[in-house]
Amino acid sequence: MTKYLISFPSGAMDFPDEDLQAASDASHAVVEEAKAAGVWVFGGGIDESVPPVLVDGDGTVTEGTYPQTKQLEGGYAVLELPSREAALEWAAKLAVACRCAQEVRAFHYDPAS
């Protein structure tokens, strides 16, 4: 089976503040459904209050990110699924729950992971 990354940037969640709890509850329900189906691997949101750093091979820590990932934020789910079609179905469920479109990407197969 293939692992799929289903994600969205935090700015995509554009709805009134009073709807936040309902969106949170709905997304947690999809997570529980994915766990019950045995396809959940990992998920969560990037803590945007903690600044990112780069760590070099010698242990040097530098504030910041690679330029192309400067806007890496939002929510992520990794699901292990039998097909791309299944990934699109789960992405649609998450899109409804989070009230925004979801990006779907497949990980290369790695038997060690």
TrEMBL record:
SUPFAM superfamilies according to UniProt: Dimeric alpha+beta barrel (SSF54909)
InterPro entries: Dimeric_a/b-barrel, YCII
Domain YCII-related intervals: 18-94
Similarity comment: Belongs to the YciI family.
Protein known as: YciI family protein
Originating organism: Rhodococcus daqingensis
